[in-house]
Amino acid sequence: MTENLNNPAIFSTIPSPGVLICDHFNQLKGYKVHRSEGTKDWLITYTISGKGQFKIGDHVQLVKKGDIAILKPKTVHQYATYSSHWEFIWAHFLPRETWFDLLKLPEMKKGLLYLGVDQPHLQERVLGSFQRLIRDNRGFQSFAKELSLNALEEILLAVNQWLQTNDKNKIDLRVQQVLGILSENLKESHSIESLSKQVALSPSRLSHLFREQVGDSIMATLLSMRLRHAARLLEFTNRAISEIADDVGFSSPFYFTKQFTAFFGMNPRDFRKKMIDKTV
Fold it and tell me: Does the residue 13 lie in any domain?
């Protein structure tokens, strides 16, 4: 067993927020760390494969693929490999002041936050952010440390966003996939049939599920997304109205103007003028 009191993160006196030290481990059975005084910083781990075990007092928390565990400062703890191996990413950090709401994750035992992420798309995003965190933390460029901290902030924001929809209001994964397809491909032509094939549902089932959870039909939602993005382009760019119409998936500028006027209560030209006048 390792007492691990000489970890540089434990006695760090750095007052400013930052990722102090981080790495990617793949430890075999028998690996164990014990800290009888905890640490002065926060410790976050993300399990990639295998299983690990955290022990806080008499509480034992197993972690598997996709699980995030966070130890608060001064938490007496022990963690170890539980299966044949435990592959995980870890980081000691000092949080920004704005993070404390983001760090209000489920607390399994005083000092131990735990969240099991079971959605593949979110696991992929979190893993990618952790990999950037490590890469940037080891860099020497001017903004490397800040980029590392931003990667950690992205992880906390992403899991908190997921938590907000992980209760009674949780949106079905297939509906989320459809929303993602629409937002990433506003210009493309979409049909209920083509979307339903991409998420392995029948057109009728997808239409019913989408309306039930989003509150509107797929095509009405797509129209709203296109028009809202067009409004941002009108406000923040000098692109011609006909070009903006094409950018968001309207082949006819006339039809675009008709739909935009019905949605916002004014035509695109007047909308742009109003936005410009607001900033003067």
Answer: no
Please tell me whether residues 144 and 97 are part of one structural domain.
yes
Calpha distance 170→47 (Å, rounded): 24
Pairwise CA distance, residues 77 & 56, whole Å: 5
Structural domain for 145, as ranges: 18-164
- pLDDT for 56 equals 93
Backbone angles phi, psi at 151, to 5 degrees: -65, -40
Angle at Cα 179 formed by Cα 172 and Cα 214, nearest 5°?
60
Phi-psi region of 277 (alpha: psi -120 to 50; beta: other; left: phi over 0): alpha
Residue 84 Cα distances to 26, 52, 65, 135, angstroms = 10, 10, 14, 27
Q: Is 124 in the same domain as 197?
A: no
Please state whether the predicted TM-score (pTM) of the whole model is above 0.85.
no
Domain assignment present for residue 46? The answer is yes
136 and 129 in contact (C-beta within 8 Å)? no
Going by pLDDT thresholds of 50, 70 and 90, the confidence category of residue 170 is: low
Residue at token pair 């927020």: 17
Structural contact between residues 178 and 208, judged by C-beta atoms closer than 8 angstroms: no
Residue ending a domain, choose from 164, 196, 224: 164
